[in-house]
Amino acid sequence: MPTSPNDTADLHALQAGDERALDRLIARWERPVFAFAWRYLRHEADARDVAVESFVRLYQQRNRLRPDSNLAAWLFTTAANLCRNHHRWRRRHPAVPLDAPCADDAHAPGAFVAADHAPAPDDALLEKEARATLEQAIASLPHDLRTVLLLHHFEHLSYREIGAITGCRERGVETRLYRARQLLRTAVERLMREPAGSEL
């Protein structure tokens, strides 16, 4: 995720007062930022709020950014911090989201698995349960580990790119990713051992 010449040109234009430059940046980065937030939060309305707020903050802080700023890294950093805040707020104010996508909706923007064909009913149930278990396990990870995991596995960013977003060295990213995978494996195994309905 190196600095894009288009991003640099649009940041210069935005800082010079051309508000159409913000529209171009939103068109370029809204979907990736929203997809990351959706995977993190698993709540469409909150993910949209995070995406919108990320661009609001970009506009508010446009003149504080250096001309050579990596806007993609800045946007993902902002989105990750907003996701953490939303997640904390949701834990303190639990609610059942009315707009939550169905777990087997292959068209959801952050779907973990896209089915190319319709599996047999038994296979579909097992796949749905496995996906739900994986999503629950990812949601249980601490913020720094979840962010690294999502950026690497779903946004396909390199260690260097993730380091620019999270503010740590490539070796630190590698360590966090290793810890995330270990915790994820443990969480999945624990969830698989739990009897159905034990969370009720």
Strand content: under 5%
CATH superfamily of the largest domain: RNA polymerase sigma factor, region 2, helix turn helix motif
Q: What is the second-level CATH architecture of the largest domain?
A: Orthogonal Bundle
- Secondary structure tally: strands: 0
> Termini distance?
43 Å
Radius of gyration: 18 Å
Report the uncertain regions.
96-100, 102-107, 110-117
Which percent range fits the helix content? 55-70%
- Seen as an oligomer or otherwise, the chain set is single chain
Described by the principal axes of the CA atoms, the overall outline is elongated
Q: Regarding CATH, which class of the largest domain?
A: Mainly Alpha
Provide a brief overview of the structure.
With 200 residues, this protein is mainly α.
List keywords for this structure.
200 residues, mainly alpha, Rna Polymerase Sigma Factor, Chain: A, Arc Repressor Mutant, subunit A, 2 domains, 8 helices, 67% helix
Could you please describe the fold and organization of this structure?
With 200 residues, the protein is mainly alpha-helical. The chain is built from eight helices and no strands. The longest helix has 24 residues, at 170-193. The N and C termini lie far apart (43 Å).
Topology:
Layout: H1 5-15, H2 20-41, H3 44-60, H4 71-92, H5 121-139, H6 143-153, H7 159-166, H8 170-193
